[in-house]
Amino acid sequence: MTEQPDGLADLDGILRRRQGEPAGPAVPAGESLGGAEQAAAQALGQAGLTRSGLRQAAAREAGAEPAATPSPIGTTPRVPTPPVGVGAVAGAPHRRSVSAGRAAFPSVTVMGANTPPPPATAVPLTGGTSQVADGAPTRRSVGAASVGSAGQANPAGATGQHGTASPSPAWRSVSHTHPPAAKTKKKRRVGAAIVGVIGELLITMGLLLGLYVAWELGWTTVEAHRHVEAIVKTEVLTRPEWIIPETTSPWAPLHTEAPPVDEDPLAVPEFGEIWAVLHVPRWGYDYRVPIVEGVDREKILNQGLIGHYPGTQGVGEIGNFATSAHRTTYGAPYNRVAELQVGDQLIVETDRYYFVYNVYDWEIVYPHEVRVIWPVPNEEGATPTKRIMTITTCHPMYSAKQRYIVWGELAYWADKSEGQLEDLVPPADRAAIEQGQEG
Hints:
Number of strands: 12
CATH superfamily of the largest domain: Sortase
């Protein structure tokens, strides 16, 4: 054990005699503490000094690390800390609180059992923490009292390591701070405004999409019909070589022999020029759409016209007279293709002749299956012997995933100079025309 200085030994002895414990040099029996000794002991008590504190102070002066002394109250050792802050006596050791190992909570020094805390001026608590006189923040105590390192409850206002706080209604439970209501309402208004803008944009896009669909399916068809009718009136019926049969003339005789095109083939028109006009009684006796050379989408099909596949046979010739047109937009010439039945007529009118094909078969294929427009459909390299007409269009409706195919075979032909074609006149009107012919 390290030898104590004389002054500390005297104080240690006085403290031992005050606490009724034997000290180094025994006091003679019946001898009591003198006035000076009593004053010194009282000062030591007020300063919070104990025997262990004296020993630790002596060890620090001697340069040795003091050993921790078991706490008489609990199992947590009291380790001295340097005197810091207001409310502690200069040079006096401090005791750590039970939570001394938690860095987030400042320790509370427990003074002597009968020692009142020194007075100090506390700063009002705001925002969940209190600022003591030396400016160090401390946490609020929970309830009206706090627990010190020895497990004893200290009343509100007890001395802490960083100062004291006077009893106040603010020393209640810790409450979390919340954002002001004004900020919350502002955030809600901003969020509602953003959602409103997005909603308006979606509604606008929906309206624009609806207008586009209406234009694509409706207005383009209206414009195409007008364009087609104008072509028929200005470019077909006005052609010098185009024969218009007399309505009073008798019905033109029907020919089943080889048509004149075998000896005098029709000249293949240039790209975009008119071949003939197609009539389909199943789709209406007023149905008539020009057939032009080529199947270009923008220049021909989107104009509401029917295109002829270049490289396939001409009208009335042996082989395959293959055509293509839209089904749902831009006039949709082949819109009602699925209504065709076996035996229905496909009538192709040229400058001088009528060529009547009867429907005999149909099929749904994929776009790459070009076998359907071969001279002999579905038979590559075969020599054609029949005069075939092919209709190709998109399938299903409003889609280009597949192709709807209809085939017709030439049944007969008629010369326009010999009269009208009876098949192009509605049945209700035929009787009147026949009476006129007889008269």
